[in-house]
Amino acid sequence: MNEYPLQVIRVVDGDTIVADVALGFGVTFSGCYLRLLGINAPERGTSGATEATQYIVGRLANAKKTTCKSSRKDKYGRHVADVFVDGESISEALLKAGLVEVYK
To answer: What is the pTM of this model?
Structure first.
């Protein structure tokens, strides 16, 4: 699985972001919806949703390097991806912080 640099455009919620993904050779996939691999965050409007979203925003604020490894598309057409902020999986960080559950 290849790792691609990305620029986050916005954080949708605690398990989805929108990003421009650099595919190489000057090609960029703009506005790509990325579903974070292996986690399920509380839905918007429910307890814990804002905290999970803000955690991602905070981690991205000072990031020096953001990359992803995409594995497949989900039933909604989003690319399921492990997103790394300065080398650490954001999914694993959210799990360690107790803000999300393992996706079943």
So the answer is: 0.93
- Measure the CA–CA gap between 12 and 2, rounded to whole angstroms: 24
Structure tokens given for 17: 């972001």
Separation CA 66–CA 90 (nearest Å): 10
Over residues 45-97, the pLDDT tens digits come to 999 999 999 999 999 999 999 999 988 899 998 999 999 999 999 999 999 99
CA neighbours within 13 Å on the CB side: how many for 61? 7
Q: What is the CATH number of the domain that holds 49?
A: 2.40.50.90
The tokens for 19 are 């990003």
Domain containing residue 39: 4-102
Distances (CA, A) of 81 to 37, 47, 48: 5, 25, 22
Cα–chain center distance at 25: 23
